[in-house]
Amino acid sequence: MQLKKIKSLIEIMDEKNLTKIDYEDKDLKISLEKSNISELEEDNEDGWIISPTVGTYLDRDKPLKVGQKVKKNEVLFIINSMKVLNNIVAPRDGIIEEILVKENDMLEYNQKVMKLG
User: Which CATH number does 34-116 carry?
Assistant: First the structure.
């Protein structure tokens, strides 16, 4: 239930272009803050998008699929790092060739996440 609530709050943040949201009810208190990590190093020669930080991998509203086209600066995924949501954006136009992680996987610094062709 809490994961659904967090996802709905993320959707609200995206829809309303918010960088911070606080939610509280009798059983739950959530504070989310979002930042963009848009200065990703250009993906390496083989097209891998790597995690610039440690955190939990979160899909965006509509998860990416292998074969899907993405545009430069489009959000690829989100990393939750100490309750700060970091949007990871595409460094260039391309097609998703491979995704190595799934929702809620822990990411390490410099870990390969997906391949952009």
Answer: 2.40.50.100
Q: Does pLDDT of 39 surpass 50?
A: no
Q: Measured between alpha carbons, how far is 55 from 83 in angstroms, rounded to an integer?
A: 9
pTM: 0.64
User: What is the pLDDT of the chain when averaged over all its residues?
Assistant: 83
Question: In 26-107, where do the E strands start and end?
Answer: 29-37, 48-50, 55-58, 69-70, 75-81, 84-89, 94-99, 106-107
68 close to 96: Cβ distance less than 8 angstroms: yes
Residue 103 is predicted with a pLDDT of 93
Domain boundaries, the chain: 34-116
Selection from 35, 55, 62, 61 nearest residue 113 by Cα: 55
